[in-house]
Write a structure and sequence with these properties.
The complex is a heterodimer. Chain A is α+β, with helices and mostly antiparallel strands. Chain A contains seven helices and eight strands, in the order E-E-E-E-E-H-E-E-H-H-H-H-E-H-H. In chain A, helix 1 packs antiparallel against helix 3, helix 1 packs antiparallel against helix 6 and helix 2 packs antiparallel against helix 3. By secondary structure, chain B is mostly helical. Chain B has a three-stranded antiparallel sheet. The chains are: A alpha+beta, B mainly alpha. The interface between A and B is large, with 59 and 56 residues.
Chain lengths: 216, 177
Amino acid sequence: MMPPTSPQDFPACERSGSRMNCQVCGQIHRVIPLSPGERARCVQCGAVMAKASRHGMDTALACAVAGLFCAIPAALLPVVTVSKLANERAGILFTGVAALWADGMRMVAVSVVICGALTPILLLGTIVALALPWRWAPVLARPLATAARVFEHWAMPEVHVLAMLVALVKLHTLVGVTIGPGFWCYAAMSFLMLLAWNNFNLVGTLPVTSPVGSPR
Amino acid sequence: MSERWQLHQRASCARTAAFAVAAGIMLVPANVLPVLTTSISGHERTDTIFSATVGLCEDGLWALGAIVFIASLAIPFLKLLGLGWLLLAAKRGPGSHSPKLTRLYSALDIIGRWSMLDVFLAAFLTGVVQFGSLARVQPRAGIAAFAAAVVLTMLATRSFDPRILWKETAAEPALSV
């Protein structure tokens, strides 16, 4: 990123031709190509405005596709098997949601589904759509990029994984606990989602709306 | 400064304040009401967030107690304090503290999600520990209030436009339409 240019109107974190503004402080910058592994920081507030993946956009695509594949067994296979005396019970990812729903905690159940399962899968799907090697029409690319940011904010599978680990350690003192394959698939999906997002150059997917001179 | 930008600035602060106040109100029942009832072999125990944290420490699970304390007690209150500070700073106008305030905003945005830990924990335990009279975990009203408080604090952070803190030094940004 180069020092600021003359003041112009730009929507939040919008790339317009060879210029782009910082979504944190609004400072306008000229866009220049980044080398692999480089990060572009705002000259005013220091926020990371763009990053170029060390391994390219294909890494994000590969991680997102692998994450989507992991999501299927994560949802279907047992996350944990709990035993007390002769009783045994296997729980899948949505067992807790179903129990909360049955207990009348419907809003809590919905928030768990949205933050723990729905938005991570939607984020992975959006990354796949944007990282595919063809250019989306601006009318589609911009809403997809906006959706990716929203999904990233509400997707928190890593928090869910930590919560499950805390619960498993606590349960271990009360009942017999065996971790199931669903847990490992969910943890893998969570890790792959973070890897995909970290290797994903959102700015690079935004369409150039009104070219104003050379990118350098 | 355009009138449109001033309107956006006021709307952003008003939305943030509204969500933050609502979150603060929801944090009261979230911390006063019980969140879980655990019944193991006829012995029943009803816990609030604080008593559950103390219970983990009493069982020798200090690390877990610390995690739950930070995620469920410290972060929501720190987040509300931070948002209050940002709103006051936005009212005073930009100054030399803008870089520090921007870092504070970024930190609040990052740490907020970890408060959902308690909600996920309650959902997981409720689903897995269902052995009738032998062992059972049931959610209580406190967890619904806590989930609402967490979502409201996240909405409050999202409603705050950090560009407000920079309005004199940055080029005046346009509004997203």
